[in-house]
Amino acid sequence: MSQIQITDNHDWRHYSYFVSDGGSESDLQNLKKIADVRIKEMTLDNNPNLLVFPRDLGCYGDDIGDGCIVSLRDEDLSSGNIMGFVGVNDTQLDIRSRFAKHDEADYFLHYMLQKVFAVSLFDIKHTLSREPVFDFLLYLFPHFLKRALSQGLFKKYRKFAHNDANVKGVIDVNRHIRENVPFRGSVSYTTRAHSFDNEVTQLVRHTVEYIREKEQGTAILSCDQETRECVTQIVMATPSYSRRSREHIVNCNLKPLRHPFYSAYTALQRLCLQILRHESIKFGREKDKVYGVLFDGAWLWEEYLGVVLRGSGFAHPKNRERSGGFCMFKKAGDDAFVDNNYRRLYPDFYNDEQNFVVDAKYKRFGEKNAGREDLYQLVTYMYCKKSENGAFVFPCEDRQRVRRHQLEGYGGFVSMVPFAVPQQAESYTDFIDEIETEEDELRFVLCKSDEEL
To answer: What is the C-alpha to C-alpha distance for residues 233 and 173, in angstroms, rounded to an integer?
Structure first.
C-alpha cells in the first residue's frame, strides 16, 4: 500500500517525491486513472464509494464536477482547491489543507468542517482520531440526517407474517400446514402495510449505534437539539434493531435508493454505507474503483466565512438556489438589449448597512495580484449596490496588514483582507483559541464604519 500525501494548491512536482516508499510504476498508473479526469465522470454509480462535496449536498455552492482532483504532466503532480482523501487500487492520495504543515491532524480542515456542519467544537476538540477521513464522514452525518428527516421518516410497504385467529390477509397455506396441524384455532396468513421499520431506517439506526461506540460519537449525535430529536425518531422507529443483523442490513442497501418523495435519503444512505463499510472499503477495494471523500476548498472556505459572519449583518446569497442577490438593471426589460437575461448578481457576502461587499477567495490569493476577472466582478458588485467598500478575504499563513486601494470614478475602496490561519498551535485546543481570535479580528475589520476604515 502506497500513500501519497500532498496539499491543496501546490505546484508541479514529481509524484515520487510524495510517495512514502519512493514511488513505483504501479502508483503512477493508478494516479493516471484519476488525474485530469473530470470529477463528475467519477461520481457516477460505478464509483459509489466516492463522495464529493458540495456536489452531493445539492443545496450548496458551485458545482465542482467539471474540475479534476489532480493534474499529472510528465509525471509531475499538481493540485487545485480539492481536499480530502481518494484511493484507487493500492494507491492512496491524501490531499491536505496547505495550512496543515505543522500538525498531523489537519486542524484547519477539521475546524472548517465542524463549523460548517455544526458539530460541537467544545465537546470534540480533544478527540481527533489519527484517521481524519473517518472523522470527516462522522461530521457529515448530523447534517444528512436532518436533511433526510425534514422529508419525514422513510416508510415503505412490508410483508408481515401472522399466525392467529384474526385472519385479515392472504392465507399462507404451506406455513399453515407446517405450524397449525393438528388445527388449534390459529391460521397462518400475511399482510402488507406501510412501515417505518424497514431496511433504510434500520441502516440509519445501525449507523447511529456505530457512531455511539466512537470516542467522539456522543458529541456528534448530540451536537444540537434537532440532531438529538432526529436520533430519537430513528431509535423509536426501529424496534426490531439487532446488532447481529448489521451485515444483512448493509447488503440490503447496496442498491441506491431512488424515491421521488424521499430524495434526501439517497445521500444519507450512501453516507451510512461509507461509515459502516469504512474498513471493508479501505482494505477490500474492487479493482480500478475510486473511493474516498473530497471537499471543494473554495466552497468550504465560503461556507465557513458564512458561519463566522453570521449575525454581523452580512447577507450570503445562494447562486445555485437562486436565492438572495440583486438585479443589475432596475427594470426587468432593460437588459433585453444587452444579453436577454434579467441578470441577477450573487456576491459571496454583502452588508447594506456597512456599505460592504465581500468576495471569498481560497486559492493562493495573497501571494499574487488579484486577477482581472475577480477584480472586475467585485467592482461590478460594488457599483450596483452603491457600496463604497469591497474586499477580498483570503486565508494566509502569517499575519499581514489589510491593504486598501481607492478606485477612480465614484471613488470607493477595494481591500485585500488576509485571514491568518494559526501555524504553530501545539494542540487542537490551542488552534481553536488562536483561530477564534482571528475570527474576531475579521469581523472587526469588515464591520467598521467607512470613517474608521
So the answer is: 37
